[in-house]
Amino acid sequence: MATAAPTVAATDAVAPAKGKKKLIIIIVAVAVLVLAGGGGAAMLLLKKPAAEGEDGEPTAHAVTPDPKAVPIFVPLDPFTVNLADREAERYAQVGITLEITDNKVGDQIKAFMPAIRNNILMAIADRTASELLDRNGKQQLAETVKREASRALGVEVGKEEVSAEAEETPKKKVKKPAPPHLPIKAVHFSNFIIQ
What we know:
Blueprint: H1 4-46, E1 72-75, E2 79-82, E3 91-100, H2 103-111, H3 113-125, H4 129-133, H5 135-152, H6 164-168, E4 184-194
Antiparallel strand pairs: 1-3, 2-3, 3-4
Helix pairs in contact: 3-5
């Protein structure tokens, strides 16, 4: 029996040593993680924001959104319109959402919806399929829709097209009037199908 007691004592002595090693490894790992996290946070805080140039001034592409200016969108029912193509019957199905400046304009849009839809239908029907297929044609249509919808709301909007004579004459410095403030900020297409 004397031999059994020393072996039990030897295993008890080894067990606390293994536990201490595990504890030390865990403490070291936690310390490394804390130091790495602190170093990373310090680098992020001390680093210049990506939107600033070398001199600390904001660069041209830096956009700071105004938290007070939450966009307001008014979706319109889809438009299905025959296009102005003469060689074949073509039509467009266009989904439009108007981005407006404030809620009062949204109430006005609801009140003037028949006139707005009429002006937009007429603007789309004046186009041909080839005009609407490229990006530039869609952007021009968006500007026309913005102007026509604003016109239906009673906003005085100038002419959109420039006369052919004005394009042919040599360019002189002519002071253009400031563009009118339109209640419709932007026109977004939710779908655009031409058949």
